[in-house]
């Protein structure tokens, strides 16, 4: 595979795509705490064997909370800007379902840049279940898609997934630490070829490759 596009260090600015941008200073610490607690709440709801009186009271409380939080809603598509040590900025979709900082549905998957791409660590609770006791294959694909896209973005090439291939080598366990790694393997015009794996205890559970098509800044 050849590489015919030199990676750039500057990511496109989401503002140039008309997207709202927030900084970490705009996000109260209490939002992070709420997100983590609601994440745990979803797991509790999925697995509770509480009685009907307890369930009725819980649903009334949750309904009231939902109405209170909906009074002031953020625009969809908001991007979080994080300063990098080299003076540039990283961007992530605030409510991204796999890794979004404000999304309680996200596991959450914590990403970092490596010398050749990105690495992420995640532990999936029982709400990501497909087969009994195992991670859902669609979610495995979603996590691979995320790190594949992030590897492309980390190399300065933000794009959309045009094609995703997944091979499930071993069952992906729940409630166990997983490591995901991804890197760019080549480029051809706007196409960015990327490759990723999920490992548990060093053993590959799934691997994926994707073709990302690089987005050009409007104008
Ligand atoms: C927005 C601002 C952001 C600013 C900064 C942000 C930082 C972000 C940070 C972190 C990254 C986040 C990470 C996200 C991770 C998750 C990723 C996803 O879930 S993406 C959602 C699912 N994917 C879609 O919804 C795409 C739907 N498809 C499309 O929109 C189009 O088909 C698109 C854009 C992919 C291509 O359309 P065309 O019209 O632009 O381009 P054409 O001319 O068709 O193709 C260009 C080249 O790609 C090949 N191509 C197209 N489709 C292909 C395919 N399915 N397989 C292989 N090659 C394909 C073509 O053959 C062509 O190649 P040739 O240059 O001629 O050789």
From TrEMBL:
It is an enzyme of class 3 (hydrolase). Residues 133-204 form the Thioesterase domain. GO terms for biological process: fatty acid metabolic process. Its EC number is 3.1.2.2. The keyword Cytoplasm applies. GO terms for cellular component: cytoplasm; membrane. GO terms for molecular function: hydrolase activity. It catalyses: (9Z)-octadecenoyl-CoA + H2O = (9Z)-octadecenoate + CoA + H(+); hexadecanoyl-CoA + H2O = hexadecanoate + CoA + H(+); decanoyl-CoA + H2O = decanoate + CoA + H(+); dodecanoyl-CoA + H2O = dodecanoate + CoA + H(+). Keywords: Apoptosis, Cell membrane, Cell projection, Cytoplasm, Fatty acid metabolism, Hydrolase, Lipid metabolism, Membrane, Transit peptide. It is found in: Cell projection, Ruffle membrane; Cytoplasm; Membrane. Coiled coil: none annotated. Belongs to the THEM4/THEM5 thioesterase family. This is Acyl-coenzyme A thioesterase THEM4. It comes from Lipingzhangella halophila.
